[in-house]
Design goal:
Layout: E1 3-5, E2 12-14, E3 16-19, H1 31-43, E4 48-50, H2 59-67, E5 76-81, H3 99-113, E6 118-123, H4 132-145, E7 148-154, H5 158-171, E8 178-180, H6 194-200, E9 204-207, H7 229-233, H8 243-262, H9 266-275, E10 282-285, H10 290-297, H11 306-315, H12 333-336
Parallel strand pairs: 3-4, 3-10, 4-5, 5-6, 6-7, 7-8, 8-9, 9-10
Antiparallel strand pairs: 1-2
Helix pairs in contact: 1-2, 2-3, 5-6, 8-11
């Protein structure tokens, strides 16, 4: 499988990255089956695996660690920290990006993964309660200690990426070398700022949710979403009465028609689309079953011609997010917290 440079990390990664979110209680609880999927992905040429401490409360990391026994040296292994993953999910100190929590949780991830080092350690979301310099400080220490090879972000808005780069330069910290944003035909908002910023700073980009949270799986169609596993678990996300969802259903139908005209399976078309952006290093595929893995592997070699890409631009214009809540990648605290935008809540009316 073709490889690409992961930003300035010096590491070469396969164009497809195996995402492990569905391994464990969240998706496939059969550890042996998950191991077979991991081994099949490695045999197909994938050398890049991404997981997180929060996935199935650490079970995903344990599954990946066991499956990589004897093959660890040939795999670029990535995991993440931020969400509550401790024994007490209600403890405010067992989450976030503080020095205290990162120090504790990196040791937990290393133990679960059965390894002495993490190739790419990513902060899963921004933490507005912690100075970015504190976060970069502890991550820099981990790099110097050899526990972490490189550091990155996941689902950061463009301005947070810029602030982190400036902080690294001014405070002589290790800098974030990768960003992992959501990206699909239906969610193209990152094209306007996140991807240009990543290119400017030489950051690698690892896309997640190329199938738009299941919308582009081929199993979500108007009048019939019963075949979709995701729809069965979160039916409100695919409610046809929702006006935002109606626009997404229309777009999915148009993309499916384009795939049929082009003679390309819809899943391959969707995944391959993300790989055509020059800022993208690798795209995460997150199979729950062996069948899902095999249907997505072909995207690595799929080349979309200019006419097909132009048609996709007509269906969903560049820089456009169709929304719907299921793939929302960033909500500014200034919008999410009513106190930030209404004076009377602050006693100022």
């Amino acid at each position: 499988m073709e490889t690409a440079s992961l930003g300035a990390t010096g590491m070469q990664v396969s164009k497809l990255c195996l995402g492990a979110m569905m391994f464990g209680a969240w998706g496939n609880p059969d550890h042996a089956d998950c191991a077979r999927i991991i081994h099949a992905a490695l045999d197909a040429g994938i050398n890049f695996i991404d997981t997180a401490d929060i996935y199935s409360s650490g079970e995903s990391e344990e599954i990946v660690g066991k499956a990589l026994a004897g093959r660890r040296d040939r795999v670029i292994l990535a995991t993440k920290v931020f969400h509550p993953a401790g024994k007490d999910p209600h403890d405010p100190n067992q989450r976030g990006l503080s020095r205290r929590w990162i120090r504790m949780e990196v040791e937990n991830s290393l133990r679960r993964l059965g390894t002495d080092w993490i190739d790419l350690y990513q902060v899963h979301r921004p933490d507005y309660s912690v100075d970015i310099d504190e976060t970069l400080g502890v991550l820099s220490d981990l790099v110097r200690e050899g526990k972490v090879r490189a550091i990155g972000t996941s689902t950061f808005p463009a301005h947070e990426l810029v602030e982190a780069q400036w902080t690294s330069e001014r405070r002589c910290r290790e800098r974030f070398l990768c960003e992992q944003p959501p990206y699909s035909i239906l969610m193209r908002g990152i094209e306007s700022a996140v991807l240009p910023v990543a290119r400017k700073y030489g950051m690698g980009v690892i896309c997640w949710s190329p199938l738009g949270g299941g919308w582009l799986s081929g199993k979500v169609r108007p009048g019939n979403v019963s075949e979709s596993w995701r729809a069965s678990r979160a039916p409100k996300r695919f409610d046809e009465k929702d006006p935002v969802n109606r626009r997404k259903f229309e777009a999915v139908e148009q993309v499916a028609a384009l795939a049929k005209e082009s003679g390309i399976p819809l899943v391959e078309l969707a995944v391959a689309f993300t790989l055509h952006h020059p800022a993208v290093s690798s795209t995460i595929i997150g199979p729950r079953t062996m069948e899902q893995l095999t249907t997505q592997l072909g995207a690595a070699d799929r080349r979309l011609d200019a006419a097909t890409l132009d048609r996709i631009d007509e269906i969903v214009p560049p820089g456009t997010d169709l929304g719907g809540g299921d793939e929302t990648y960033y909500v500014s605290p200034a919008l999410a917290d009513v106190k930030q935008r209404r004076r009377h809540f602050l006693g100022m009316a």
